[in-house]
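Researcher: Structure prediction, please.
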Amino acid sequence: MRKCVIIIIVACLIQILICSCDNGEDSVNSTILGKGNLGGHINPRTEYNDDSDTNDYSGCNISLEGTTYFTVTDSVGNWIINELDEGEYNVIYNKIGYSHFKDYDVIIKKDYTKTLSQNLYKLPTARIFDLNVQLGNGEIEISAKLYSKYRQLYHCRFFISNDPNILNTLTNYTIEENVGITLFHAPDTVNVEKSISLSTIYNNGIPPGTRIYIIANVDYSSLRYKDKVTGKYVYSVMSEVPSNKVSIVIP
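Model: Predicted structure follows.
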């Protein structure tokens, strides 16, 4: 009798051990992710020429935010990052002297190569300067001058905030307004004017009696992306030299 009990106990222990091993294997396998690849092509653009035969495709840095994955485009603008775990990644593009860009939530799937294509723009040589602001009838009236040595359609962007350190980051502005200006002769300097109603300023959370700060910049592309933390658009093709800063107290 005792011998039978011992045999039964040993059999049960063996069965428990087998089940434990099986469950452990399943647990490990469930955490192993498949691998995929991410690659693409960058298209450099300039203020004066979009001819692909003359633009510089090399030297664009591609990185995946929050990881150590990194690569650089080759002489024709191609890039590849292999053996990525399945999941979502934020892709960051950087090239010296060009716009930067962030592509959010790029999905990598097992045994699949995700391909991206992105334009990058050489930073403009155009400048906006002599920024001024004054109160009008229920509005603020902004004026500035735009200079460029190229015939081009430009976007003159005016950024407004109650933060005196406006644009010390790319998104610490409250309001962005813009004016499109086409230069038909070059080089040339033209006047730029923009009126913004006080109600627009109030409706953006800036109350009467507040000192607002204004700064301007210029670009020739509408390339932008929305920062997921602040919810503000990042305009990354602007001149490296913004305008002077002005301020005014709104009534």
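Model: The chain has two domains: 35-121, 127-249.
Researcher: Thanks, that helps.
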